[in-house]
Each structure stands twice: as C-alpha cells, then as structure tokens.
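User: Predict structure, ligand coenzyme A.
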Amino acid sequence: MGTYRETYDRSIADPEGFWLEQAARVDWIRKPQRALDDANPPFYRWFPDATLNTCFNALDRHVVRGAGDRAALVYDSPVTGSRRTYTYAELLGEVAAFAGVLHTLGVAKGDRVVIYLPMIPEAVIAMLACARIGAVHSVVFGGFAPQELAVRIDDARPTVLVTASCGIEPTRTVEYKPFVDRALELAEHAPAAVVVKQRPQLAASMVDGRDIDWDVAMRAGRTDPAAVVEVAATDPLYVLYTSGTTGRPKGIVRDNGGHAVAMAWSLPHVYGCDAGDVWWAASDVGWVVGHSYIVYAPLICGATTVLYEGKPVGTPDAGAFWRVVADHRVKALFTAPTAVRAIKKEDPEGLLVREHDLSCLETLFLAGERLDPDTYHWATDRLGVPVVDNWWQTETGWPIAANLRGLEAMPIKPGSPSVAVPGYDVTVLDTDGTPVPPGTEGAICLRLPLPPGTLPTLWGDDDRYVASYLSTHEGHYLSGDGGYVDEDGYLFVMGRTDDVINVAGHRLSTGSLEAVIAQHPAVAECAVIGVADTLKGQLPRGLVVLKAGAEVDPDRLREELVGMVRSQIGAVASFRDVEVVGGLPKTRSGKILRRTMREIADGKDVAVPSTIEDPQVLDDIRILLRRDGSAS
Ligand code: COA
Ligand code: AMP
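Assistant: Predicted complex:
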C-alpha cells in the first residue's frame, strides 16, 4: 500500500483511480467501471454504474468463503448479566429471518424502517436486515424523548418501526415502548407496524393490530428468510439524524457502495484491524460511530465486533472496560474521551487497569469530541499503548483526520488527531475563503468532491444540504469546526464555530434547547450556550430573560425548564443549568450575540462588537460567565 504520504497524494491527485482500486475490497453484483460521477456538481456520486448488497458483504460472503464459524458479534451486557456470541453463520440466519419478517410486513426496497432500540443484538440484526432487502434504516438513539423521535418519524416516514420494551441504564430501567407510543401520537405519519422486542426485565403493553412481538414474528421469519436484494451503489443504506444549528435535525444520507468501500478501507488502514481481529467500539448504535464501527466496518472486514450494553463506570465499576477487553481479547478499543474521563474520575490511579490482563490490547482510539491532553496522558500512562485521536462527523461517516495505524503509524502530538486521511482534501480557510498559513486558525473545510462513504445529500432536501455545507465557500464542504494545521501538516481541531455543542460525545443543537425553553410562559427570550465541563466536555447552560411583570421563583423556574427539556429533547441533553439574566447582548438590529457569548464562555478575549445595542448587558454576561468559568 505504500507510506502515508504516497497514498495520501495519490488519493487527492487521482481519486478515481485510487477508489476504483479500493473497490476491489467489496463484492459487487455489477462491478464498477467508473468511480466518480461528477457531472452535476456540487452533487457527486460514487460508483454510479455498480450494484451490490451491503448485508451480503457484511455476512454472506464470509460464510460463503468458509468463515461461518468465526465469531461475528459478541454481545456483553453487564446490566443484564448476559453474554452471547453469534458466529457469522448464526448472525446471517437471524438477519435473513428478520429480513423475512420485514418483507412480510410490506417493507420493500427503498422503504424506511425506524429503529429505536437499546444496545442489544436485535439492533444490529434489524439494521442488517434492512440492508439485506434494500430498505433504508434510520436508527434513533434511545436517550431521545418522544418529541425528537416523532420529528424523525415524520421526516423518514417509515413503513415499520422496531423497538424494545426497555433499555437498562445503571440506575433505572428506561421504558422504550411508552416513548414510542407517545411519539406515534405526536407524529403525523403512522408506520404500518411496530415490532417490539419484549425483554425479560419489563413487559411492554401492545397495541392490537399494530404491534408485533419480535420473538413471535421471528418464528415465522426463520421459516421464510429473505434473500439479498440488488441495489445501486448510489441507493441509500441509511439515514441518521444529527443536530444542526436549528431545532430541525438533519437527515444524513449514506449510500451503499461508497460506504462499503470506505468501511472496508478504513478499518485496516486507520484502525489497523482486519479479518479475524476482535474489535470493540464502545459507543451506541444510535450514533455514527456505532453505525460505522460497531456494525458495518468490522463485519464487512470479517472481524469480530463487541456490542457492549453497559457504561464505562457503574456497571459495576470503573474497571468495566478493562474487564471486557480482557475477557474477549480485544485488539483495539474505540471510545469517546468522556468515557475515559469518567473512568479516571473514579479510578485516578488506574488501579483497576492492573486487575485485568490487557496484553491483547494494542491501541486505544478516541473520537467524538476534542481529546484533551490530560485525558490523553492519563490513558497513555495507565494503558501503555498508543492512544490515538481521530476527528470526524456524522456527515463524513469515517475519519477525516487520524493517525493511520494500519498504513504508517506517525508520531502522536497530544491535542491533534494527526493528519488528513487519504481521500480528504483538508484546508483551513479565513472568512473570505482564502487558505490561511500554517498555525493560523480558520474554518476547517474539505475540498470537493468528498471521498466515498460521506454524505451525498440530506434526506429529501438537496437545497438544505447545499445551504448548510456547501454555500459558504464555493467548492468546499464546511465542517463547522474551527482549527489550524501546523508546520508538519498536523490538524488541531479547536471546536465548533456554530451553535452545535458536544455533551459527553453527544452532539446537540443549542437552537433546539432554546426552542423548548422559549415555550415557558414566563420566558421572554433565551439563549443556550455550551460551557466547559471537566467530565462531559461541554454542558448546556440556559440564560433566560423573564417577561416584564413575570413573578416566578427561580428554583421553580429552573425545575420546570429542566423538566421541559428532559421530556421534549431527552435525558441525553444533560440540561440542568439555568440562570435568569437582566438581558441578552444583542446587535442594534436585535440579533442575539450568541457567538460572542460562546467565545466568552470558552475563555477567549472578545472585543465588544461595534454593532452592539447595549455594552453593559454584555459586560454583565461576561462577569457571570467568567465567574462560573473560573469556579469550575
Ligand atoms: N437510553 C435511554 N437513556 C439514556 C441512554 C439510552 N441509550 N443513554 C443515556 N441515557 C440517559 C442517561 O441515563 C442519563 O439520564 P439521567 O439524567 O437520568 O442520569 C442521561 O441520558 C445522560 O446520559 P449520559 O450523557 O450518558 O451521562 P451519564 O452521566 O449517564 O454518563 C458517561 C456519563 C461519560 C459515563 C457517558 O456519557 C458515556 O459513557 N459516554 C460515552 C459517550 C459515547 O459513547 N459517545 C458516542 C460517540 S463515540
Ligand atoms: P458527531 O457528528 O456527533 O460525530 O459530532 C461531530 C463533531 O464532534 C465534530 O464536528 C467535532 O466538533 C466533534 N469531534 C468529533 N471528533 C473530534 C475530535 N477527535 N477532536 C475534536 N472534535 C471532535
């Protein structure tokens, strides 16, 4: 494969040749003759003349080639005290059976299926079953409230919804089914059927004529499994909603062909794992890390993937990750820095690390938020393996910047996810769109076309795709992150430049939180900003201005607003901090200076904008944010 530099340069100089060659990693039904359709910029399509089936690549082909007995999926669930290993042949059997169920329920190629499940094997089975019959899955993270689920249902318009009776958090059992029932009351669209996995921990009540028991359906499905359906490489495999800057989530579309190639290329080259290796991405199937690196990449490559239903701490202790690594002989672990910070908080000396035989572990990969140098050093010192940062987004589906362990391991610089990954033409631009010199901060952008596996558009909304990502700097994708490249070509990602915040590795829109808070009868206006938090990276903080004459007890108001966010967005928002302020800083035209507040909260020196309406209001906010910032 050659060194990093050679590979990278070739991928940029000759993307067609490079990716056509990599396409050999995938089994096609009709092989691609061309790599890129660039006839309609800024819309690009990869492998426009090819057909395949993603599920065949993830399962059948390994069985066909004699690896049916190899472990495909290891389910490890400390919260239920259960474990199960599925071989490739067993997983294929389950997936084909559930694909048969979906087929019987009327799901056809191109139809959508919403999956709202905890971290149980049924989540993986349902995703792959959709892929098998050419249906488009949309997995919704379990920490979202009914309202958020309803918005996604109305956008995706699924034929079937798949859920479970409950999820299990360390301190409580989360009832999923009532959330689904409520979401379907709120949504305008009604799926034809709801398939429910009844878990032994809690039985959900069923709606006659609509709800179907997973286990009962599977008995029929096993007698009538579905065969693979041929799809175009450019057909959608899934839609995954992510937070944008407004309250309305963006449906990131992933295609079949480009995605399969990107998955097959990235696991060995970026993460140094391949067929036969045991790989563990400790994320959730509701996030992009879960889609790419719990499900698709490891299975497409023929590796063994671990599905962990538990937390880094509390299930039962801060040694849980090390126990899983040792028990399943995990070669590489991928998680978010916040998980390491949670472990470090409970076991600062790393005593629990020493209780397990971690000789199998070669690398710890971290992504999802900025890897702070403290966390980097702690993990490196305690584990004695390379700790490798990688930067990417739901939109791209796989790393944009990384230290490519399987291609050429490079020196690690703490605070940097290292260098641009082959396929990504990374550039840092100033506000005029001019590339900035090394060491200067600007907007991190990617020159078009983006490589295979990245978003071709937003679900049902080409205009929003262009407006959100492609219209600021012509010919470039705007990542929404700011940062710089140093003299050695290492990228430093400094944080979002928009109203997206990152709470415990979960991406949230401050706009959607503001929309909920603004509904309170006593609130005249509000702003939500992300403030630094030592555990979760960032936490949302609400600043509210009361309506004239409104008399409310601040504690009661706080309680009500926290409750509203929890019930409308979900527990995942971790929203607890609300402050009543005299006013919000605004421009003379009435625009709230969110960016200025964000920069103050980040500890930056911010000049008073010349267009400000009342500088005193900004001074008051500055005092408030600085006071609390220095206290935390
Ligand atoms: N279903 C239902 N509720 C969920 C949920 C799920 N799948 N996941 C989280 N929640 C709930 C939690 O129970 C918690 O509720 P609470 O307010 O009643 O306690 C709330 O959402 C916030 O959860 P979380 O952000 O996970 O915080 P936490 O305090 O429970 O745990 C960490 C903190 C750091 C241990 C945890 O955030 C973690 O493991 N993070 C890893 C992040 C990650 O995997 N990111 C994916 C990108 S790689
Ligand atoms: P998501 O789409 O949920 O994966 O979130 C993507 C966002 O998380 C990025 O735009 C960044 O702001 C942030 N992020 C992810 N990985 C990193 C990283 N390694 N370093 C810094 N920020 C990161």
